[in-house]
Fold this protein.
Amino acid sequence: MSDLVAIPSPGTPLYYGEPGRPLVVLVHDWYGRLPWLENYARGLEHQGYRVAVPDLFSGVATTDEATAEELMNELDVATALASLDEVIQAAHTEGTERVGVVGFSMGGWLALLHAQGGAVDAVVAYYATLGASQHGVIPCPVLLQFAETDDWRQGEEPESFVGRLKDHGTPVTEFSYLGTVHSFANATIVDKTDVNAAALAFARTASFLTDHLVD
């Protein structure tokens, strides 16, 4: 299929930065681990982090939305969450003490689900929420980065999710980026990318992670 994209080290995490530093796990969206994530990871590496980018689709990545939806629907959520646990546990054995997870779309949803387990110190979700039936207590600070126009949310506006976070006592910060659509940070999907919004969202993510992962 012409819309499939070859990726390095299929099925295994990519790592950036020195072991033992605070860890940031990047969780890809429904398109898979596309090349744009390397630049995002390098940016965090330059901030002083150990960065891990798992491949949850076992070597498959795409630029086609219909194919991406199929990949997401085939994902085993329990296996994906276990993969995040494995990356975090491995980092702890290397001396990492604090962990943040940054997820995009599907990856943001997984990051929020995973954070309910208490294994991370901060979580950032781009264009993602949890429905009421999925939502438990998230015991760490949360940063939410929303697109202005986003059909992905469908029935649930972010206010409902944010309200539940606040009711649970979770520290939450949210931003919405004018003129953007879902996937605005994904530089490989050029018809959806907003370079200025993506840069601002990255800067806010880096600042948030510094606040919660760095002494």
Q: What stands out?
A: Residues 113 and 119 are 11 Å apart (CA to CA). The chain has a mean pLDDT of 94. The chain is about 35% helix and 20% strand. The radius of gyration is 16 Å.
